[in-house]
Amino acid sequence: MGSVKRKSPEEPSPTSTSTAPPLHDCVHHVSYPDGYVHPSSPPPNQAHSEPAKKFPFTLDPFQSQAITCLENAESVMVSAHTSAGKTVVALYAIAMSLRNGQRVIYTSPIKALSNQKYREFKEEFSDVGLMTGDVTIDPNASCLVMTTEIWRSMQYKGSEITREVAWIVFDEVHYMRDRERGVVWEESIVLSPKNSRFVFLSATVPNAKEFADWVAKVHQQPCHVVYTDYRPTPLQHYIFPSGGDGLFLVVDERGKFREDSFQKALNALVPANEGDKRKENGKRQKGLVLGRVGEESDIFKMVKMIVQRQYDPVILFSFSKRECELLAMQMAKMDLNGDIEKDNIEQIFSSAMDMLSDDDKKLPQVSNMLPLLKRGIGVHHSGLLPILKEVIEILFQEGLIKCLFATETFSIGLNMPAKTVVFTNVRKFDGDKFRWISSGEYIQMSGRAGRRGIDERGVCILMVDEKMEPSTAKNMVKGAADSLNSAFHLTYNMILNQMRCEDGDPENLLRNSFFQFQADRAIPDLEKQIKALEEERESIVIEEENSLKDYFDLLEQHKSLNQEVRDIVLSPRHCLPFLQPGRLVSIECPSSDDDLPPIFIEDQLTWGLVINFDRVKSASKDDASVKPEDASYNVDVLTRCVVRKDKIGKKSIKIVPLKEIGEPLVVSVPLTRINTISSLRLYIPKDLLPLEARENTLKKVLETLSRFGEKGLPLLDPEEDMKIQSSSYKKASRRIEALEGLFEKHEIAKSPLIKQKLKVLQRKLELTSKIKSVKKTLRSSSALAFKDELKARKRVLRRLGYATSDNVVELKGKVACEISSADELTLTELMFNGVLKDIKVEEMVSLLSCFVWQEKIHDGAKPREELDLLFMQLQDTARRVGQLQLECKVQIDVESFVKSFRPDIMEAVYAWAKGSKFYEIMEITQVFEGSLIRAIRRLEEVLQQLIEAAKSIGETQLEAKFGEAVSKIKRDIVFAASLYL
Amino acid sequence: MEKEIRGIQLPLSQTQKVRLKKALELLQSLSLKVNVDASVVVADTITVDHEDGVLKGHGTADLNGEVVATICGVVERVNKLVYVRALRSRYKPEVGDIVIGRVVEVAQKRWRLEINYCQDAVLMLSSMNMPDGVQRRRTAVDELNMRCIFEENDVVCAEVRGFQHDGLHLQARSRKYGKLTRGQLLTVSPYLVKRQKQHFHHLEEFGIDLILGCNGFIWVGEHIEATDDMVEDQVNQSDPQVLLPGKNSVSLEEQEKSYTTLETRKYICRAANAIRVLSTLGFNITLEIIKGIIDLSLSMNLDIHDMLGSEFCVLVAEKEAERRSSNKKKR
Predict the structure, then answer these.
(1) A169-207 b/e with 16+ CB inside 10 Å = b?
(2) CA-closest candidate to residue B295, choices B326, B322, B276, B267
(3) A754-785 residue pLDDT tens
(4) Where do the record's region annotations for Disordered lie (chain A) (predicted)?
(5) CB–CB of A806 and B173 under 8 A?
(6) Interface probe with B: pick from A502, A802, A953, most Cβ of B within 10 Å
């Protein structure tokens, strides 16, 4: 049935039937590897005229399209929204493999998701197994659900599954762009057996075709792309301005952006908020969380409104675990459930909690949750106990939770839609700053809105608490999905595992990586760019170029020397005493239209009067510790400015020369923009508020300027007035004098059009340097990406004795091969240095916890002395390893590498290994329950790997010790089985 | 003395004796002398610094607080790890090693292979790529047809996968592993084969393949292009073992179809004899040295059987001494 499509691979074949709405379209491409010959015989599975699985509903076009590809035994990449129903394709692939007696693997990025999928498939097919780091169930089943990491290590170990698997399903393959873990997907895909076929399920990505091209190239097989933008339930996007009390429709279900409505929404932002919001930018959420005193908070109003309008169930996304909980606490007064529902919830909850011990049932998180849940309000984030998380998911699916406060993690995976999705914030903290939510993230999260077959349309509400540009908003709400870009990077474990195989070669992996594939694609583009730039450069012809160039160089030198002097003179230490009110200073005007830096500074100077100066508050908290000399300062200067207002009323202020038209204004400029300080001070009137007073003052400045005429204002003499005696100042000023002498003598200086000529030359030089930089990128992309880094990393392995210069893996390397859940080098070094040998089991477990804990905790308590001592040993080892990497030219920041090992949960894990109850260890530390449980589970994974490692070096005592450690930590609530199993 | 240690047993004339002794002395002087004191016999105490954690690896045990050797060999240290490397012993497998073995039993879903280890290795049916190249689960029919893939006494090349609960497991990752036909299997002491990046070699000028198994089993055979066409291999399946004696299922027809040329056979023998010489002398066996010996024998126009004579043996020893000393000078 698909043979027609196969003959026209290049053109997209719209498959919408005449009855379907236009949104129903899907795009279908096929990527063939170079030189691919179509098999002459029809696919062998023609015998099966019956579909492997029938669905009780009509398939969407994209689904049947994808299934056709599966029936033809060809790989397919399905790119569609979360709610569109990609799982159907996966289900069909599994059914088909089972029918054909083949194995099928289903990988997902998250353990919790694997559990859920296992449950789902088990109900459907029964011959299903599960393998995650935590649990293994029936590894001999025909359909195996696992995490991508497990699949990767299985392929390195050469598990027999690799020879039996016909289909591999990669769910949520867009995880490949994850900075840390994305590389695992690339490794797994490249390493996968050549004869197997793939199903990739992904969120909408614009470059799905590129991805398919890559798979086709690496595996020498055709790969189909089925892409659709289709949403089964259309979305409406609203904006809720903070402090206001209404919703504004900004995008209707046809996808039209309503500018006017957006503008109204912004105007409805309570203006009083604006002032204090700007000041405490960092604590913006406060208003949202606390609300005005004596008034209902925004979030409360919002939920109330949603319930009134029957927009529930609703998911409210926020970007931090704490905020999530705080918001939920605000709902204290609200009750969304009837008595029958309450009983149901209580029953489900208590039967789920039955598997916990009595002590664990008393955990505050458990006991506090039930009352909240009974009212129909839930919280879902990674800090929850896994079991609670699962109960909440189940309750939500049952429709017993009407209002769920969740973090971003809730937006991926199992089908758990709501009618409404609310974004409590439009900004998200991404590690170093708050930024707008990207359109891709918005798409992913808004995908939860609208239940198929229940709701006519889904509702998305954006809570906006500050002015945003319409373009930003439009981009967020209507923008394209994020591209799927490679996040490939090298790890030592990867290199060693590759080196260990007879036909493995890390370079081969690099060559086949998606990263390399994408880099290769950019080459023709870059070449074109270089050509254009070169043509432009050739077109610029200058007379007497050499001597002009000479002169230009002198000017540049002069400029940089002047800058040097200026920096000395205007360092806060020297100039602060002179910045009294009324002091005349010269300021650089921002260059108007030219992107080139000005050649003559004099062109760009204007004068102004100092009014005041103050210190800039730096972002870091240790503000007080910064010495006054080192802090940066802002100076308030009265000068002439042009004020422009753009369309949405955002002001922009620009300083212009005094004689031009503009308002006299006091502006705050950073100290670095002040050029020189004059020795003159003028009188400033006490009240500068009236425009007249300011105008008059500026007039006086102009008068003063004209009085001094050509010579310019007398400046403060650095040596006599400011008492600067540093030798670097003297040296620089002497050199300036010498240079100025040279200017005089230079023949070209007298040439009439010198300034214009210099401009042209500058442009030409600019082009040359641009060409150079583009050529550099070209070189680095045509060469094997990461080649240098691979070399450097191999050097590290040699230096540490993990491998020989002939790339033969040595004993230590074999140990490091086994460790994939922690920093392999540091841990191996620690082990070979005997640190783990002499300490008690509990201490060892506690020490190893530093390898698995990644969350940052501020002012976490220091562990007790003996643990701290161990931690210091770890830090020493890490520093040595880091230092050695640096010496081998691996790009690494040694200190941040050392700091990546965190002692925050050492005490808690120590106590846990000692046999404490979970509520006891929760009292020791302030971390979230869920985070701690995850860390301990990962710790167990590391211990299992260490057992293998100890076995391979024949150290039986150590092996036994690791085994003992596993038995000590593997108990109770931390390893409580998932409810899905 | 050196001669005895190496256990070389050759009928040597007086001059040959002197020459060999000289060459061996030169070689000994060139070798690194770090490990001279480190050789231990069973129950020898190994001196360690007990101050900080010592890791006791293979071949060691704890006896009354002292680390003692449990095998004869050389003490090796990696950071705090102490272990004893046995000098002449059976093969000790490590994950990822390339080994060659002989099928001793076809059992349920698995073949048992003799690989010169203290126990037989296991090659599971599922650890082999299926002859038809299809990725699927193994069925009962596949199990019944296992003898079509390997039967008893076949020589098989595989990779060490690791220790499972029921012993040492092997696997065949790709096409180049599998049954070896039309060639010779040589067995040498495992210590003569050093682990390297490449153990499969194709000597193009002679048209032969050379596989240096880490377990001391070395294969020299006619070159076979590793093809993706799996079906063809099945035809070759029951091919005559031209040079391996003890193979009885030879049909004339098949013999004609695929005939190893005399020239190639000669080269196979020449390479095999080169390895035998090295084994006799107790020299490390690497591609480079084997090639050197073949070239030497060719340049001397030596008959194949003469390569095993005393004169050639002494000559090889001299050449090797020369080569190593010149290598050392270069450094």
Answers:
(1) bbbbbbbbbeeeebbbbbbbbbbbbebbbbbbbbbbbeb
(2) B267
(3) 777 777 777 788 888 888 888 887 776 666 66
(4) 1-54
(5) no
(6) A502
